[in-house]
Amino acid sequence: MGVLETVYMVCLVGGLIYTLVSLIFGDTISDWLGQLHVPVVEPILLVSGLTAFGGAGYLFSRFTSLSWLFVLVLSLAIGAGLAVAAYFVWVKPMSKAENSTGYSMNQLGGKLGEVNTTIPAEGLGEVLLPMISGTTYHMAASLERQTIQQGTRVVVVEVRDHVLYVTPFHNESEKEMNKHV
């Protein structure tokens, strides 16, 4: 076994071992390698490219009569091609698909909710807001300093010091329904 065959075998076996360890231990290693913050090069791309390089190089050097230089260039092209394909097929679509159920208090402005505990003119009540992750309850005060009864639909106008300042929400369809009743 020549030096290049050894290099190919180390890349192939190393990539397979990494894959098995990642399968067993989840994303811990990928998260650790992800801390390197190398642009465009994700750990999954690096490992898949090296594994393909090693496998192609070993197979071509062992089972063909191609020159060592041609095998090296061909193996590098196959490894790089697989890494690029993995980027466009796996990494790029997955990076766009990630969503978070977390939110910031500053993002609550403009949200519609319902008063859960009556908001006094000069005090705090509680507002129920539907969110992606479920329903959340927040302290609320009346923006216009008027009492807002429990069950009233409200809109969050601003957020200050973790308190939502709300005003009653009346849309046109609700007004029309109330006229006909």
TrEMBL record:
Annotated signal peptide: none
The Gene Ontology terms for molecular function here are: peptidase activity
Instruction: Tell me the InterPro entries matching this sequence.
Output: NA-bd_OB-fold (IPR012340), NfeD2_TM (IPR058653)
The answer to whether UniProt assigns keyword Heme to this entry is no
Which GO terms fall under biological process for this protein? proteolysis
According to the record, the segments passing through the membrane are 6-26, 38-60, 66-90
Query: Is Membrane tagged as a keyword?
Result: yes
What UniProt keywords are attached to this protein's entry? Answer: Hydrolase, Membrane, Protease, Transmembrane, Transmembrane helix
List residues of the Membrane protein NfeD2 N-terminal transmembrane domain: 4-99
What is this protein identified as? Serine protease
